[in-house]
């Protein structure tokens, strides 16, 4: 499977966001946008008005770490999201929300936090384009990769050979290899890419 790299702008300089995106978009496949509300996770980032101002030549992969995501998916679709991923833990009617996202004309993703088993999403696997397995507790960049999560990736990959499986948190040159070996094909990396002196090289080292 083709490995796709998604630099996470959480570790970029928000004061010059579009320049930061320009510095990686030629070498990457997706721009990963972390939306946090201070409720679902203990941190706040940005909302749809900021996403609408992003100029990127590659698709926007919007990761919603917010409560009541159903109230906002339309705003993010209008703002230019190409993929919208919601957390299973934040949804009362997960199947219904995934259907709503699909109807907005964007790709659909579902995510699980480290403590959530993949059985929580087993009934919706045919309704999504991508599953995001969190490899850190969501909320902050720069945390340590949780290798135990590879069991989830491997189980999913066994059952879904063609599904996009994304990993997010603690990805660097070493952990990328572990994740790909387990079956992941979409790698999010924030601090590793934006903290690198040579971002092109950093992205290439993940493939
Ligand atoms: C964490 C976010 C990640 C974060 C990853 O909640 O979902 O996308 O940016 O950061 P790194 O790659 O630094 O672990
Ligand atoms: Zn993320």
In CATH terms, the superfamily is Aldolase class I
CATH architecture: Alpha-Beta Barrel
Sheet with the most strands, sense and barrel status: 8 strands, parallel
- CATH class category: Alpha Beta
Low-pLDDT parts are none
Query: What is the topology, as strand order, of the major beta sheet?
Result: 1-8-7-6-5-4-3-2
Distance between the termini: 11 Å
Could you please say which CATH topology applies here?
A: TIM Barrel
Derived from helix and strand composition plus strand pairing, the structural class reads: alpha/beta
Structure notes:
- 29% of the residues lie in helices and 20% in strands.
- The protein is α/β, with parallel strands linked by helices and 207 residues long.
- The protein has one domain: TIM Barrel, CATH 3.20.20.70.
- The chain has an eight-stranded parallel beta sheet.
- The chain is globular, with a radius of gyration of 15 Å.
- It starts with a strand and ends with a helix.
- It binds D-xylitol-5-phosphate (DX5) and zinc ion.
